[in-house]
């Protein structure tokens, strides 16, 4: 290091600055020499704990690592701990004979009032009246927290908190035990995984100027999902005049417990999610709603997926878990949260829309959607410009600092969807002096549209309309346009329509299990919102609103969570699998025109790869007639069937597993759907057999007969027996399905599969299961 020589006393301020620079360089050099640390999750065989240690925590801190490195200790849905360690330390701990598995902490992402009626619920009738709106059921919501002051979380006229509740209302920034009540009965926050990730990676620590170190919601997503599942009646609800009416959740009297595992602009860490599962099950929740999924598009094996592991621990204790399917549609095999004990939910539209129009200078009017609520353009025509004519991708996408104010000032700007938030593009246009925006879908989004509360006049249009507008611009010397906003329109047909963004099958891990399981409302859903940010979520959005309108499978999953609460309240002895079965076998595959549901992305009929068993219909799910139940042992047999050994299965189930001497078949899991996979190399007839067992939950003395819709001509589906007789003493019946087809003559559809169905009916109930036939290459 060079020697500093001063001819006189150095100026104090200058000396301090130089000293700070030298010190920072020394610290940087020291830090760069240190091994990097990351967070890891360890699955430990709890039964191996020596009796000398009073708790597992004492054991872990004595034999595995010191207490300062441990973030969470898991002891309910999972046994083990998470800790911040170097690779060498992990390698050493992994050699311990009690360690069953190790996986690195991963960051996941959120899958971002008329809908209860659209599900078949009416005041004082059907499921709402018979379940007392779910008042004895507790829904745990894993998300970004809650804004407890919203009317949706009022406890007016609610009875006492269920006595089995053991949870707490954690104190933190702008949150105290008084923030909870008889509606919002518990709230916790989990930040250790996030903070460890921030200290060792590119994330920022919790910024308390934009986030709350407490269960309070700085993002809005958690408040929205919680009130979607179980919000109380809120009269005169709207978002800037849109969707006016009464806002309410699916289970308005169900109790809510909030588990904040996701942090603003930072995602959600597996170690924190697993800790939330542990806490929620211990606290006594009946339903868990989790609108979170992998952010890398890669499906992890169940034994390396903390959501799959945590949810198994919950389901095995009777807790129903509803999860979002993801928003990576319409691409095939994009569905996430694939474990067969999870209920995986895709998204559809409801019969409400927020139309807007683009009126071009040539007189053509093109339809779109918008939630813009500012000053209208009042029919004035403005020059129309498409920055993408430059050939620069960032220009066409209206990315930050990409627009030349000289080209867009005073004009309506066409921006392509993608790469940045939809509402952020409008802000870029506004900063450059534009007066309005047309947001055009690309091929991947097709005609799928969602409304946004834009900061400038904006109309979102489909890919076809976007191409027409760009063609008009390129072929016209002085292209002009204006935008008109039509407010809220009810009674839209067709509905439901499969949302273009809703993730699709087939199941990328085990195609024998059809995923998603079903779809529910997830487009333009009105629900409560935080007071920390405006409806766009942008820092520059100074507006505040009690409610917001969002779209995503994140919005669909809490609809199913609320539905599960109502079903659990009406049928407290039903298992999570029975509740899912009731939803799936009564789901509708027709829209409100009595036609097959269409796919928003293509305009063609959708398939079970898109919607699973169909769209949630709660009016029918209350009384399904028969259910397909699944026990913990059935799930273990399934894991054996897919090749997991006893030690690997123990990572998921916590208990040592014994696989049957005769290996089970994965397709024989008692699921309410059937997937027949024929070998693509077969040159003749192929056959696949399934065994299913149904439990009668309707009238004791019932007789059901089978009805089959074969997937295609040349495919036969036989069912034995074809008649099921139930009595007071006989509540379960099994049957065998045989699917046979000549693979030489099978012509698969665009999705690479053919689709049919099997239904049991007693004259009142119709218990329907989709049948999927596909061909696979041998391994």
TrEMBL record:
Which residue positions does the secretion signal occupy?
1-31
Its main localization is secreted
Where is each Inhibitor I9 domain found? 43-111
Q: Where in the cell is it found?
A: Secreted, Extracellular space, Apoplast
Q: What keywords are annotated for this sequence in UniProt? A: Apoplast, Glycoprotein, Hydrolase, Protease, Secreted, Serine protease, Signal, Zymogen
This chain's protein is named Subtilisin-like protease SBT1.6
Domain named Subtilisin-like protease fibronectin type-III: which ranges? 668-772
Is Ribosomal protein one of the keywords? no
Q: Which domain of life is it from?
A: Eukaryota
Q: Where is the Peptidase S8/S53 domain?
A: 134-604
